[in-house]
Design a protein that fits this description.
It contains 13 helices and nine strands. It has 323 residues and is an alpha+beta fold. It has three domains: 3-185, Jelly Rolls (Sandwich); 186-233; 239-317, no CATH class. Strand 4 and strand 5 form a beta hairpin. This is Putative transcriptional regulator YqhC. InterPro entries: Homeodomain-like_sf, HTH_AraC, Tscrpt_reg_HTH_AraC_N. Keywords: Transcription, Transcription regulation.
Length: 323
């Protein structure tokens, strides 16, 4: 069977399994099926670390001036949480179908211990937290077996983690394996920036500034700015702004927030209206400009809840991991 036929078969299998997504996640943690039959406009999303394989349809991501595509030929590897914009290309004839795997750091560390000092494993550590690489036949074959065992509870429980380990191994040994290596390495620029990103995630509502974040990474401001941009493809302030705007949008989408865009901006760390600075004004305009998209997403969510929007799971991004 050729590669195209295998991808079509995997897309059909995901379509078959998608209604049991919750049961599957209980059988095998860290897996999420992706399926949709309608295109999605360029929309802000928040991606957590993980690996995304698509077998049909494609997505295009935008972060600053960087543009990246992932599809049946290229998978996406994220090793840091990143807010950016994403566009979905899907139709009933060519649906978006794929699978997302969380990166289990403990499993990755165990895998690296087993590899040890093997001379065939010589990877330079990657600086960027967002990478794409060719979807190899080895990975495709392993994912096919993973989807097969998902249908059988005992097989999923006993064999699933081993197949995920195999997939992780092939990614690690592939052209972007250095990104996974950087994820578990300590006291590197990547690990220090990752620590700062976790601080932003916990304290984004507070009055953070670049000097504080640079001190957290034990770097000068100029070195911090350089290394931060190497990992995230954006500046520290732009990342913080994007993260806050994403959180505000999610409040308005998921929580049914009736307050204004200004109120949402204040809840995620911008100043109140009487003392609003330029960045807060820009945040307010950005949120206000997103209201049409947010309202459309709310309507899509209502249609989903009424059973009128089956097969468009990507329409309302869930909390936490998104793809």
């Amino acid at each position: 069977m050729n590669r195209e036929a295998i991808c079509l078969q995997l897309a059909d299998k995901i379509n078959h399994l998608k209604n049991n997504d919750k049961i599957i996640s209980e059988r095998l943690a860290g897996i999420r099926l992706l399926y949709g039959v309608e295109p999605g406009p360029r929309t802000p999303v928040m991606y957590q670390p993980g690996i995304i394989f698509l077998f049909s349809g494609h997505k295009i991501g935008y972060i600053n001036k960087r543009k990246f595509r992932y599809d049946a030929n290229e998978y996406l590897l994220l090793t840091v949480p990143l807010p950016f914009e994403c566009e979905t290309w899907a139709t009933p004839e060519v649906p978006l179908a794929g699978i997302r795997l969380d990166i289990d750091v403990l499993q990755l560390q165990e895998l690296l211990m087993d590899i040890g000092e093997d001379e065939r494993f010589q990877l330079p550590m990657a600086a960027s937290g967002i990478n794409s690489a060719t979807l190899s036949d080895e990975i495709l074959c392993a994912v096919e077996r993973l989807l097969d065992v998902m249908e059988r509870p005992l097989d999923a429980r006993i064999l699933g983690k081993q197949i995920i380990r195999e997939i992780l191994y092939h990614v690690l040994m592939g052209p972007r394996g250095g990104a996974l290596l950087a994820l578990v390495s300590r006291q590197t620029h990547f690990s220090l920036i990752s620590r700062v990103l976790k601080q932003i995630e916990m304290k984004y509502t507070e009055n953070l500034n670049v000097e504080q974040l640079a001190a957290e990474a034990n770097m000068s401001v100029s070195a911090f700015h350089h290394n931060f941009k190497a990992v995230t493809s954006t500046s520290p302030l732009q990342y913080l702004k994007s993260y806050r705007l994403h959180k505000a949008r999610m409040m308005m989408i998921h929580d049914g927030m009736k307050a204004s865009a200004a109120a949402a901006a204040m809840r995620v760390g911008y100043e109140s209206a009487p003392r609003r600075c330029g960045s807060a004004m820009r945040a307010h305009r950005s949120l206000a400009g997103s209201l049409n998209v947010i309202l459309a997403l709310r309507r899509a969510k209502m249609r989903q809840e009424c059973g009128q929007c089956k097969g468009a799971k990507w329409g309302i991004p869930p909390r936490g991991n998104e793809a």
